[in-house]
Amino acid sequence: MKKAHYSKILIRTILLTLVGLPLAANAQDSAGANTAESYDLLIEEITVTARRREESLQEVPVSISAFNTAMLEALNIRNVGDVAPYTPNLTRSSGPTGHNDGFYFIRGVGNTDLNPATDPGVATYLDGVYMGRITGASMDILNIERVEVLRGPQGTLFGRNTIGGAINVVTRQPSGELGYNFRTTVGQDGRWDYGGSVDVPLGEDFGVIVSYLHQQHDGWGKNVYTGEDFGTIDNGALNARFVWKPSDTFSASLGLDYAHQGGTSAHTILNGFNPFAVSPLGVPIPPDLGQDVSSDVYDNFHSVNPEHHGTVEGANLTLEWNFGGATLKSISAYRKLNQFAANDFDASGYVFYDHNFETDQHQFSQELQLLGDSFEDRLHWVLGAYYYDEWAYHNNRIAMGGNNGVPPGIPGVPYATRNVQRAIYNNQAFDIDEKAWALFAHMIYDFTDKLSGELGLRYTDEEKTQSYAFFIDNSANVFNFAGIPPFPYIPTLNPDNPFLTIPTTYSKSWHDTSPKLGLNYQATDNAMVYVSYAEGFRSGGFNGRPTPNQMGQFGAVQPYNPEYIDTYEFGWKTENDAHSFRLNGAVFYSAYKDIQLLVLGPSGFFETTNAAESHIKGAELEFQANPIEGLLLNAGIGFLDNKYTKLDPGTIAGGILPTNVLPNAPRWTDNIGAQYRFGLSNGSGIVLRADYIWQDDVYFNASNRPGEFQASYGLLNLRASWLSADERWEFAAYGLNVTDKAYHTNGQDIVGPLGVSFAGIGAPIELGVQLMYRSK
Fold it and tell me: What is the pTM of this model?
């Protein structure tokens, strides 16, 4: 990273702090003359459930960012992943598949692999229910009350594998009063979103809220040869929440959600190639493949049918009994998903590394929580038990070269006549069963009115059984034997293979005990500091892509081990008496061990391995101020520094060097925004808002190759709204990425070993308008 960039962000940080201090002092001094009400207060009090009970954001000793409904609308947030640029030390990529997949990284911890053999490093929860897969984890914003981002290990209070942090999504509950709202958005490139919700009381103790959302977009990539659009969106989602509360001591809540994801595959481009490389099966790279390197980032030359579709759905039932001194809560949930996506990993008109995959998954979870207060309300405790059962089938299908015997293509000739569209496909098919159970306890003891301590402990036991059924698809007759009819189905790591001498089913279990310790000091009514130590755990597994050796033989599949993290954190939360200034921050240090990284093996396939150890240190700072009536200022800054302290020799051979950095871990993440509201003579109002988001240099994969690098960049978003006098109607005009900055959202560089490098392209400028109505 250039020194100028360091200076720019450091100066911004210093100025932010220096400017904030006098703002706080002025607000404190004028609290008598200018109350919160006279400020037309924009800094809202947000209630979160980070510690499994409702608390003010300012009372929770965790580095947490929270977004309520008003903030999500003001920032033009369309799906949960869109909060990432506004959250220090949180990054998100949709990966090569695009759409609603959530490749989240918090403080450098996450997962670059969609393969279900690997668990997410950042856990996503919907109404307290853990979502086992990355697929659909960046759900569309539908009837969402708030999004909470908790940084650091959270295992003593949340489901499973929250080693990097947790994204907690909470939907709206029925209010007991009739209400409804709708919203429609029209923008560039065929953007048309519409949806709404209705809140209906069905009696004194029963109510339901139902929401629907549709999103469509024409995408921003186009195939030069076929004219097909890439990155198109055609999504629909339905959500319902039923609540029955027959007494003050019992309530039942049933949530149902369904989302359909349609459209086409993500837009990716070829940005490098090696004419001397060969595929893992020894097929040479076509020598003229380089003519499909994109000179315009919005053009591609794919040979795949850009099919992408899937569904994500679930049901959860929450029962709650209040016994006076304690509350018992039961959360039962069932979820399932399916996804099919086609990608072109050579991003050219040749059928070479064309790729598609399908995933089917379902899961059941049961959680019990017992919450209470003891010793004259000095001890606040949570006891819990958790059970999780998941099954998934995955088939990763990739072309290993084709068009054998076909002469090199003629530059400029459309791909349909340039080569025979056939290839041999390697199908890496397997199914996996996971079972996990855990016991956890979390206690907070108030030693004095100002000093409290925390103690948490979690025991986890997990077991995985993985069964392989790999096969080669030679139905295109790429390989034949002296005119003998082709063998369309060739089993490899498969029970059907009579020559296989190793098992095709493997099973292993892991267990872990993870503690959390903390001290919290409430210095004043509006200032709190805390220190904490927490351990995190992510279970091991079996490689989803085991590969043959150079002789074409498979060895017994070896498991990879769990990874662990130890995090030390010091944080503070402050605001003034008028609640017109807020400054929250945290600094941390993490020892990250047995890191599960995706490494390119000697056979040319990727595999998950315990590759490294790393030390991570960093900080988060979030600021809000309401210095004058109608004006809100906000900023967030994240700093992250990491370096490997140990690397496995095989990892180095796979291209990961000691000087590399963790993937998706930019050194700086920064956002700054301003919103100003003023009234008109007829009682209506105008709201103007501008946001600038900035991300430092980043590598998308652990190998840190040139094609996986994205230089630092910034995006500017604008919004102007008119609000009716009763604030029920809102008409807004918006601009996203108004400077039309081109940038990569993901990338993979395998030029050296496999001959190609490709990258996903971010959304260009979008201008649009939005109309909203809220009945209350």
Answer: 0.92
